[in-house]
UniProtKB/TrEMBL annotation:
InterPro entries xrefs: NpmA (IPR056262), SAM-dependent_MTases_sf (IPR029063)
GO BP annotations listed: methylation
Alphabetized UniProt keyword annotations: Methyltransferase, Transferase
Protein name according to UniProt: Class I SAM-dependent methyltransferase
Lineage: Bacteria, Pseudomonadati, Pseudomonadota, Alphaproteobacteria, Rhodospirillales
Keyword Nucleus among UniProt keywords: no
Annotated source species: Pacificispira spongiicola
Stored Pfam families: NpmA (PF24675)
Recorded GO MF terms: methyltransferase activity
Length: 222
């Protein structure tokens, strides 16, 4: 496997960097969803705006296999030629996707990706910034219930993370990475962006979501 593999159902193929660049240049806009999980959000986004290139990136190819197979079907059978699924670790970004995103989303991340956006980890945030065009919009949704249960956070090995809703250093670290935070708010109820994992976490429950929205600053970290 290469560092960046396109998911084609159960098969993988190295990402064709030139083809990605051409598709991005031809698209009206580019959306990248990091930690995309099953990839249903990408399918919905691609279907909603056919001239937008929608790229889902996740470290686990198997999670995206079904959505990738659906996207790769013929258009007559509901295929979505503007949807692309890529197996890659967040720590290896941006790779061939540098400077492509008009919109970058991170929805209910877990493990290392959750630490990157909530701790926050400056070097890896810079890698996320490198995915973006100047002025791109960043939307992060965090399962805030995790941070309200410090014992559970300890069991995850993340007990050292300061509550990202109140962390006074969070905006400064994001700014150093090239993002200007425009919103940081805890909400209750259904997630504002469709994601199978997000619905599993919060829908029909008392769980809460922390929303972090930001803009990629001009002359940000390349």
């Amino acid at each position: 496997m290469s560092a960046f593999d396109q998911v084609l159902g159960k098969k993988l193929a190295p990402v064709d960097m030139q083809a990605v660049a051409r598709r991005a240049a031809d698209a009206a806009a580019v959306l990248i969803d990091v930690g995309t999980g099953q990839g249903k959000f990408i399918l919905d986004a691609a279907r909603e705006v056919p001239d937008r290139l929608c790229i889902g990136i996740d470290a686990v190819a198997e999670n995206m296999a079904k959505s990738a197979r659906s996207a790769g079907a013929s258009v007559k059978k509901g295929g979505l030629p503007n949807a692309l699924f890529v197996r890659a670790a967040a720590e290896r970004l941006p790779g061939p996707f540098a400077g492509l995103a008009d919109t970058l989303t991170v929805q209910y991340p877990w493990g290392s990706l959750m630490r990157i956006v909530s701790e926050p980890a400056l070097d890896h945030l810079r890698s996320l910034r490198a995915l973006c065009k100047d002025g791109a919009e960043l939307s992060v949704l965090l399962n805030y219930s995790v941070f309200e249960d410090r014992e559970y956070l300890d069991r995850l090995g993340m007990g050292d993370i300061v509550d990202p809703a109140d962390n006074p250093d969070l905006e400064g670290v994001y700014a150093a990475a090239g993002f200007r935070i425009t919103r940081r708010e805890v909400i209750h109820g259904d997630p504002p962006i469709r994601s199978a994992w997000g619905r599993h976490l919060v829908r029909g429950s008392a769980r809460t979501t922390l929303i972090i929205e930001a803009v990629a600053q001009e002359n940000g970290t390349p």
